[in-house]
């Protein structure tokens, strides 16, 4: 790889994505429509992650690199652990990493921004990965994401599936972001300055408010209000409610010129509901991810 990385990249619109997951696929669709070549690892990609020769060849051809791969449960970032040295030698000028606002930990409902200290939350592995990508240098953009929703992964599906909960936790708020707004934020950062950016919508709110809006749009009864104990949530879902914060997005707006197309969950759910029709519960997609909350 040491000699290969000195090869001039073939085009300035060539992105290599580590981890072609839900969010990365939305980004890839947009960029391909703009004439970009996008390759990636993962089940939706065209390169196996452990195909070192294939990955390194794609890296020599890439002008931009993005990772959406989360840290391992036992700690460590799979991409940095496997290809970190190759990335440090790579001559390209743009590296992106999809991180999580979970790095801020519990703020007691207060606002957090990119200057807020990290490392006080439940996701120490995510903090280490976040800092590890920043350490690659001034060409890196780190995007901290809250709860992600979009087509097939929203409160609409959870309400239809009977999986939605309203939890009696007064004052509990979360931030969230539509997957298409993440894609537009990353694209805005292609020409923007390096650094850390929160990509969140404009209205942190309770999960209850989102579920209630979804039920209203679907014309169904709201789920009953429950305590955490009554809801019998999984450990992961329960941990979601252990943190309370509002995520500020002003830096991305100022420095990238980014404006979310879905500034609140209301516009986002309304648009999603308009593009789908009610279907039998058995045909509904999986529930929304909360791993970036």
Q: Structural class, from secondary structure content?
A: alpha/beta
Broad shape:
globular
Strand order of the largest sheet: 2-1-3-4-6-10
Largest sheet: 6 strands, parallel
Give the oligomeric state of the chains in this entry, treating copies of one chain as homo and distinct chains as hetero. Answer: single chain
Q: How widely separated are the two ends?
A: 36 Å
Helix-strand pattern, N to C? Answer: EHEHEHEEHEEHEEHEHEHHEHH
**Helix count, DSSP H or I runs of 4 or more residues:** 11
Mean pLDDT across residues: 90
Which stretches are poorly predicted, pLDDT < 50 over at least 5 residues?
Answer: 1-10, 278-293
Q: Share of helix among residues? A: 25-40%
- β-sheet strand percentage: 15-25%
- The rounded Rg comes to 19 Å
What's the total count of β strands?
Answer: 12
